[in-house]
Input
Amino acid sequence: MSQAPRPHSVASRLAALAQRLGIGGTDGRNVAERSRSLSLPFAPLPDWPAGLGWQSGPPLYRLIDLPRGALSGPVQEDKARIHAVLKRLVSSHYEDHPAVDVRSIDGLCSRTLLDSPLAGLEELSNSEHCRKVRIISYNDFTKVLGVALPGFERKTQLQLRSAGWHGARLFWDDDNHPCELANAVVYARRRGLEIVLPASIQRFELQTSVLDELERDFHMLAMPPRAWSDSAFMELLLETGMPYARFGLFNSETPESLLLPRDHPQSDAFGQGLREAGAPDVIDYLRRASKAD
Output
């Protein structure tokens, strides 16, 4: 079966026409040469931290509800193209499980711990934040667990999350009583107490087929903050009228991404030159995340 032709933006079609007619601005070869010579402080993207919180590492789950305003760039049509792909990068579905051991819970979705540097439930249970919760006896355990999971004796359903970029870890999807939950799970692990409950697990996955599509159609490169005030870089980005989009893909700690369509001669050359100059490939970064252990 033949593959359907890819849609091209207005900017790409005009650039191709201008090239055939011998008019227009900087050609692709010149763009590539100039971009390779840029002096920008490119650095490898950071490793993915495996922390206590669901938000540890780049919060890829937000791509599902990605607003159009998350991208900036000169042409609405180009931004819409890119947005349509990014929004499909992550999928989500629910699974019902009849029996999940509470001890398998490995992280929390609590917003109160959004910026927690702690590595896991053990560290949280021993922290100053959770000092008020102490479990000495089995009775203490059932009381504390009952605060975190009201009705657990009646097999109330757990609400959990998992994600491919978090490996096999399970996160408790509740904003309340994180200290009680952490202390109860840690106590159950130490004492070998099996508490099995039904669970609904919301699973998030990076779609490798959409990553393939993104890689086929766009360069997606991590740019250092200094790039946006670098005169040589901005002149090269703007003087040809090439299509592009800027996107703060993850969070304030992660460099902003530059997306450049491959079907536009200047933007494709610009992307190739930036890669040769050392710009990290965000798509490769995402592929590694999708294979987390």
